[in-house]
């Protein structure tokens, strides 16, 4: 009976008034419990939770006008097509979108980019580095799963849930309403996606499109462009784009000819660690000593991307740029890659690579086969004694590796050994028995503090390695090149305490231009003592520099890096930790917006000011270099499945 028709009673006049209030409340409750409305509100709140950490100055209308239209397209289809399982489809969508938003936040906090479906390639790696993943979690991010837990419990345990499910099945929205909402949602999604599809900056693109539209657009349009014909990819063209002028008599050519080559890749080492003192305490004394004994390049930058450590191994050994969307080992692992190990083998070298983790981590079994190493040494060789994170400590790594190098040195052939350290891996919480320094109280319990302590231990191990090389008679007969594999302190992972400590260390606010700066040093045969080299360099330049010192020509070997000892100018493209199209040159880091015109400039030097020194011509030449590299590698022949390097055994 409607309240308006309720019989009046002189004794109880309030009854009609109360029913007039109750009925609208029931109507509102009925509306809110309809899946279309309920899950729209739930996922709208989650959209705001996800946007907060990813996008700066989130507009109040952002998730409402970008995420909701995408969801309404799905919801309209559920209302139109589904019947008995309609509620199940809503709940599955809620679970999947919640997982996507949560993953986007965690991924951005480490990489500084918006996740896409290619991150599925990293699912196994995420399990192995679970400590790193958990360290990025903040309690408030877990609230995004609250409704799923509550609804799931209520769904299976409450008697009212059965009645709700029945009401959902029997209630169908008007087809006219559903059709109108579907058309409006399609129009809004098109307006969000189409004008922003050409944006260079993936973060800007995701903000303009909305995270869900961005993911769908990436999935549907992710196709490799037609590669540039190999005949058009020449070293002359590459050098011209980079502005390289080759010398007829390059300096240092053959300075270490016939010597062993040892390339040491140090985990998460940023350049600010060199010479760092905290409260008068020297953090990396061994690294500081080495910087004064050989060639030290303080203006050196990472070339790694999604694959992190394995990407660094790839680009150092090939002088190619990383692929645009995947880790190099995933995109190129099945290829027969031109590489430093193969080049040195042609010149009489034996080759091996050493890493204490399982060789299958980041598909290194594929990478080492593609690069052509003779042997690899992994966890099966180093064992599980003295574990730090997911492998034996750097102490074990260096002790057992130098024993093998001594055996290799007894041969009449020189060797090339790649050594990959790991003990200073994110999240840097090394065992207490590995502490080699007293951390100031203000650094305790912070990411910056843990990082410094882990690098201090890594430096202690580096000193052991140098001592072992000298004791075993390897130092005087070898050329040692060492560098950091990638950044250690992602800006987006740092809280207010971390940022304050970083400002104390750097003397200015920690910025994007500080993150990619890693050290590079050359020691031993052919390296001048105590020489600081100020030119710009990157990991892609290691191979040409090594070839020059060893007296090996690269005339018939395509490479995108340059010999740092004979070139003063450089142009360093960056991607993944920074939006595609980011470029380091001169005294500036340039990060594009939707394109070149609305890009942002960051100074590279302490106390400097960013100049607009990156020209549009340089920007376009950098994009062409990326395309040439990708086209060249994609057209390399696939590797025969039977070809794999030999596993080193004890």
From TrEMBL:
It comes from the Bacteria. It is found in: Cell membrane. InterPro entries: Alkaline_phosphatase_core_sf (IPR017850), LtaS-like (IPR012160), OpgB/LTA_synthase_biosynth (IPR050448), Sulfatase_N (IPR000917). Pathway: Cell wall biogenesis; lipoteichoic acid biosynthesis. The lineage of its organism: Bacteria, Bacillati, Bacillota, Bacilli, Bacillales. It is a multi-pass membrane protein. The chain crosses the membrane at residues 36-54, 60-80, 87-108, 138-157, 177-194. Belongs to the LTA synthase family. Pfam families: Sulfatase. Residues 259-552 form the Sulfatase N-terminal domain. Its main location: membrane. Gene3D superfamilies: 3.30.1120.170, Alkaline Phosphatase, subunit A. This is LTA synthase family protein. Keywords: Cell membrane, Membrane, Transmembrane, Transmembrane helix.
């Amino acid at each position: 009976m409607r309240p308006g028709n309720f019989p009046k009673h002189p004794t109880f006049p309030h009854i009609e008034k109360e029913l007039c209030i109750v009925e609208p409340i029931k109507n509102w409750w009925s509306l809110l419990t309809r899946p279309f409305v309920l899950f729209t509100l739930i996922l709208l709140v989650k959209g705001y939770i996800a946007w907060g950490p990813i996008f700066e100055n989130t507009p109040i209308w952002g998730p409402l006008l970008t995420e909701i239209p995408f969801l309404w397209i799905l919801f309209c289809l559920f209302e139109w097509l589904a019947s008995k399982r309609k509620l199940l489809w809503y709940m599955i969508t809620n679970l999947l979108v919640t997982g996507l938003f949560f993953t986007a936040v965690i991924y951005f906090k480490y990489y500084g980019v918006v996740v896409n479906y290619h991150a599925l390639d990293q699912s196994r790696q995420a399990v192995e580095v679970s400590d790193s993943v958990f360290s990025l979690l903040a309690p408030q991010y877990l609230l995004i799963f609250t409704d799923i837990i509550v609804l799931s419990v209520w769904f299976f345990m409450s008697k009212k849930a059965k009645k709700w499910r029945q009401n959902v099945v029997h209630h169908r929205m008007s087809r006219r309403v559903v059709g109108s909402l579907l058309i409006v949602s399609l129009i809004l999604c098109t307006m969000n996606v189409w004008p922003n599809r050409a944006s260079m900056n993936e973060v800007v693109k995701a903000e303009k499109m909305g995270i869900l539209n961005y993911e769908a657009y990436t999935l549907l349009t992710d196709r490799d462009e037609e590669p540039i014909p190999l005949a058009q990819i020449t070293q002359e063209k590459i050098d011209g784009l980079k502005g390289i002028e080759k010398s007829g008599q390059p300096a240092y050519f053959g300075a270490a000819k016939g010597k062993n080559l040892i390339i040491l890749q140090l985990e998460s080492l940023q350049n600010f660690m060199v010479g760092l003192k905290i409260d008068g305490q020297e953090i990396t004394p061994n690294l500081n000593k080495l910087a004064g004994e050989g060639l030290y390049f303080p203006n050196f930058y990472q070339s790694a991307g999604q694959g992190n450590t394995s990407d660094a191994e790839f680009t150092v050994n090939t002088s190619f740029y990383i692929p645009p969307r995947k880790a190099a080992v995933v995109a190129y692992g099945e290829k027969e890659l031109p590489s430093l190990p193969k080049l040195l083998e042609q010149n009489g070298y034996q080759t091996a690579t050493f890493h204490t983790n399982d060789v299958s981590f980041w598909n290194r079994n594929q990478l080492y086969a593609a690069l052509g190493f003779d042997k690899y040494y992994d966890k099966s060789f180093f064992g599980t004694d003295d574990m730090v994170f997911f492998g034996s400590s750097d102490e074990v790594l260096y002790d057992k590796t130098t024993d093998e190098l001594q055996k290799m040195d007894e041969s009449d052939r020189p060797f090339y050994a790649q050594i990959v350290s790991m003990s200073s891996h994110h999240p840097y919480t090394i065992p207490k028995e590995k502490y080699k320094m007293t951390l100031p109280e203000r650094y305790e319990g912070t990411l910056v503090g843990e990082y410094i302590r882990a690098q201090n231990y890594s430096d202690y191990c580096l000193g052991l390695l140098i001592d072992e090389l000298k004791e075993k008679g390897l130092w005087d007969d070898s050329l040692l090149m060492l560098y950091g594999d990638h950044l250690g302190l992602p800006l987006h992972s740092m809280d207010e305490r971390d940022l304050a400590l970083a400002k104390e260390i750097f003397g200015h606010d920690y910025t994007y231009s500080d993150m990619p700066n890693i050290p590079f040093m050359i020691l031993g045969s052919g390296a001048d003592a105590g020489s600081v080299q100020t030119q710009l360099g990157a990991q892609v330049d290691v191979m040409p520099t090594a070839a020059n010192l060893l007296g090996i020509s690269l005339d018939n070997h395509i490479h995108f890096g340059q010999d740092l000892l004979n070139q003063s100018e450089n142009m360093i493209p960056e991607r993944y930790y920074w939006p595609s199209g980011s470029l380091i040159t001169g005294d500036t880091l340039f990060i594009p917006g939707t394109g070149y015109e609305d890009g942002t400039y960051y100074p590279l030097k302490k106390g400097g000011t960013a100049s607009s020194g990156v020209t549009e011509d340089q920007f376009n030449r950098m994009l062409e270099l990326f395309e040439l590299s990708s086209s060249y590698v994609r057209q390399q022949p696939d590797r025969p499945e039977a070809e794999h390097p030999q596993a080193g055994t004890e």
